[in-house]
């Protein structure tokens, strides 16, 4: 009988997970459709921006144009879908949470959108021009003629913007996992060396191969981790205070029983 109940529980969980995934997929597809309507204005903005001036972009295949539009539409859909995906994850795990944990973790969902946009702005207006200037300087130093395909230009752009934008979700992710009691500041401090190594590796990979560029990206990423540890500590202290309050209430209730 117990085995049957466990099997039912697993089946129900899998069914719930499938339902959440279908919801996310529907929103992503709708976002993709909407993305095609904004693809051209976004493309015009990106190609007329200061960083793109001086480049004559070429199409080297019949699919380059539509491919860029699809990438822009996909990025737009990701921006729309990301907070909804986090909300669906919260809905999936919330039945196993205490009421106060449910309330505490739900409030993080709207900030997913804001942090992603902040990461996009930082990566596009700070890191991308720096990376572009470095690669252009090397090309000119080698005496090469710059002839770029639109596919290569936008792949370079999205290859920088997307990873950095996602990394800006790190503080929120750590607060969310702390709220679920999966992480805590003690564990994060123990993981600091490994985390620093991973973040430095990411900074080196996504930036041009010079120390200044690496440093300009590395410092914000390490600061993001330290901010994450600080925010995790705030959430953790609130959890401990709430646990102590509940425990004291329980002790008082037990004392009243014994007195009665």
From TrEMBL:
Belongs to the TatC family. Signal peptide: none annotated. The keyword 4Fe-4S does not apply. It comes from Paenibacillus xylanexedens. Keywords: Cell membrane, Membrane, Protein transport, Translocation, Transmembrane, Transmembrane helix, Transport. PANTHER family: SEC-INDEPENDENT PROTEIN TRANSLOCASE PROTEIN TATC, SEC-INDEPENDENT PROTEIN TRANSLOCASE PROTEIN TATCD. The chain crosses the membrane at residues 21-46, 66-90, 111-134, 154-182, 194-212, 218-236. This is Sec-independent protein translocase protein TatC. It is found in: Cell membrane; Membrane. Part of the twin-arginine translocation (Tat) system that transports large folded proteins containing a characteristic twin-arginine motif in their signal peptide across membranes. Forms a complex with TatA. It is a multi-pass membrane protein.
């Amino acid at each position: 009988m117990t085995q049957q109940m466990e099997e039912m529980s697993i089946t129900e969980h899998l069914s719930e997970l499938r339902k959440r995934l279908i919801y996310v997929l529907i929103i992503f597809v709708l976002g993709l459709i909407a993305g095609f309507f904004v693809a051209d204005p976004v493309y015009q903005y990106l190609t007329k921006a200061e960083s793109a001036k001086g480049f004559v972009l070429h199409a080297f295949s019949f699919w380059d144009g539509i491919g860029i539009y699809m990438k822009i539409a996909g990025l737009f859909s990701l921006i729309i879908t990301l907070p909804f995906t986090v909300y669906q994850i919260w809905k999936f795990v919330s039945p196993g949470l205490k009421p106060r944990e449910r309330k505490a973790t739900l409030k993080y969902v709207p900030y997913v959108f804001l942090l992603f946009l902040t990461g996009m702005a930082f990566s596009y207006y700070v890191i991308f021009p720096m990376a572009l200037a470095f690669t252009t300087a090397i090309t000119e130093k080698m005496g090469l003629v710059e002839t770029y395909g639109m596919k290569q230009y936008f792949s370079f752009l999205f290859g920088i913007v997307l990873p950095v934008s996602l990394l800006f979700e790190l503080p929120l992710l750590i607060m969310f996992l702390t709220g679920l009691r999966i992480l805590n500041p003690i564990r994060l401090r123990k993981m600091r060396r490994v985390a620093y190594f991973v973040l430095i590796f990411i900074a080196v990979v996504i930036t041009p191969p010079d120390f200044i560029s690496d440093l300009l990206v590395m410092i914000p990423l390490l600061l993001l981790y330290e901010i994450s540890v600080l925010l995790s500590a705030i959430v953790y202290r609130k959890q401990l205070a709430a646990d102590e309050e509940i425990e004291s209430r329980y002790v008082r209730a037990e004392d009243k029983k014994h007195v009665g």
